[in-house]
Amino acid sequence: MAAEGHLACIWIKRAHRGPMDPASRASLRAGHGLEGNADQRGRRQVTLIEGEVWDALRGELGTELDPSWRRSNLMVRGVRLAESRGQILAVGACRIKINGETRPCERMDEALPGLREALRPNWRAGVYGEVLNDGEIAVGDPVQWWREP
Predict the structure, then answer these.
(1) Residue range 5-145, CATH number
(2) Pairing state of beta strands 33-34 and 20-23?
């Protein structure tokens, strides 16, 4: 895994099945997730995708589909998310415990036929996790796997 990457995009979903609003900054709340996001609490407080994986998928599928269609909250670059269950990802000053692989749903094929199947293997649909501490994040913030000091 790469030692350090960066936060490339932030999206906030105001309502279930609602649009994904891009943001340059956002607040994370421990035990809740992104402030203003429809999905809060539980083990799936925030979802993340890898920019490099999205780029590869667009090439494979021959599309310029905007990554907001993946319906994740955060896009990171320079950090591999595959097989990361149980690890802690530092995004800026915030920490997110990765709880598992995000499974692509039928909404992916509404965006682009074949996208759901293309996202299935090797954690390509990204990950979900719990926010461990309050803080502000912004596009461009460093992202890296956190190790206790």
Answers:
(1) 2.40.33.20
(2) unpaired
Mapped onto helix, strand or coil, the DSSP state of residue 108 is helix
- The token duo for 58 is 């667009």
Q: Which residue has the higher pLDDT, 38 or 17?
A: 38
Please name the residue that has the structure tokens 């319906």: 71
At 98, list the tokens: 């990765």
Place of tokens 């105001």: 14
Do 94 and 45 form a contact (C-beta atoms < 8 A)? no
Q: Is 69:52 a contact under the CB 8 Å cutoff?
A: no
Give the residue extent of every domain in the chain.
Answer: 5-145
For the segment 80-127, what is each residue's pLDDT rounded down to a tens digit?
999 999 999 999 999 999 999 998 888 888 888 888 899 999 999 999
Residue 125: what pLDDT?
92
Give strand ranges (E) for the chain.
Answer: 5-13, 20-23, 25-29, 33-34, 46-50, 74-77, 88-91, 94-101, 127-131, 135-138, 142-145
Q: Please answer whether residues 22 and 9 qualify as being in contact, where contact means their C-beta atoms are separated by less than 8 angstroms.
A: yes
How many Cα atoms within 13 Å fall on the side-chain side of residue 133?
12
